[in-house]
Amino acid sequence: MIERNRPKTAERATDRRNFMLGGGAAIAGISALNFLSGPASAAAVKRQLKTAGEGDVGILQGALALEMEGIAAYTIAGGSGLLTPGTLKVALVFLGHHKAHRDSLANLIIKAGGKPVEPKTDAEYTANLNLGALKSEGDVVKLAAALEQGAANAYVGQVAALQDRSIGHLFAQLSTDEAVHWAVLSGALGNSVPAEPYLFG
């Protein structure tokens, strides 16, 4: 159940927030999932990302990198043949949400005078997310749930760091979408509702 895994989930959520705060993780060639599961400390990652953008644009770049990773996960896993029609239909809805998130974030970066980070190749995402290890629909849903929970935590965790309150409003909207995705996927896995409050952030 989710409750039993909470310490590990909380640790990964903290790492995902730090990843986003670091900004241009895609520029540095660091995968979000590798960062979540790797041994590097937050301080070490921040040193690696020292040349990346700072402030709101840096946070937006990190958010964009995470959204592009989510898009790749849904696209590649969705085309794997592992999903039943009903599950694939839901996955495509979530994919559409992530594409809209990507576009909103990229537009804000451009308006701020920045250049949006580029997505990695499908081969890189497959390797970084270990998508080749997915053998069943359950595997796909479990991975998607973990990514959605991490994304919700990341957005909630960065609201206070943003200087532009309008971006904070967008992050609140994005975190809500991710939380809904996680709830649907967690329910599909048969997980019980966590007893404790404050599930994200």
Question: What this model shows, in words?
Answer:
This protein is mainly alpha-helical and 201 residues long. The chain contains 9 helices and no strands. Helix 5 (55-78) packs antiparallel against helix 6. The chain is globular and about 40 Å long. The two termini are 20 Å apart. 39% of the residues are buried.
Rg measurement, Å: 16 Å
The coarse overall form would be: globular
Strand count, sense and barrel status of the largest sheet are: none
Helix proportion of residues, in percent? 55-70%
Instruction: Provide the residue-averaged pLDDT.
Output: 81
Tally of individual helices: 9
The stretches of 5 or more residues where confidence is low (pLDDT under 50) are 1-17, 21-52
Strand content range: under 5%
**SS-derived structural category:** mainly alpha
Distance between the termini: 20 Å
Q: What order do the SSEs take from the amino end to the carboxyl end, as H and E?
A: HHHHHHHHH
- Strand tally is 0
Task: Record the SSE blueprint.
Layout: H1 6-22, H2 25-28, H3 32-37, H4 42-48, H5 55-78, H6 85-111, H7 122-128, H8 137-158, H9 165-188
Helix pairs in contact: 1-5, 1-8, 5-6, 5-8, 8-9
Summarize this structure as a short list of keywords or feature phrases.
mainly alpha, 201 residues, globular, single chain, disordered N terminus
Structure in a nutshell:
The chain is mostly helical.
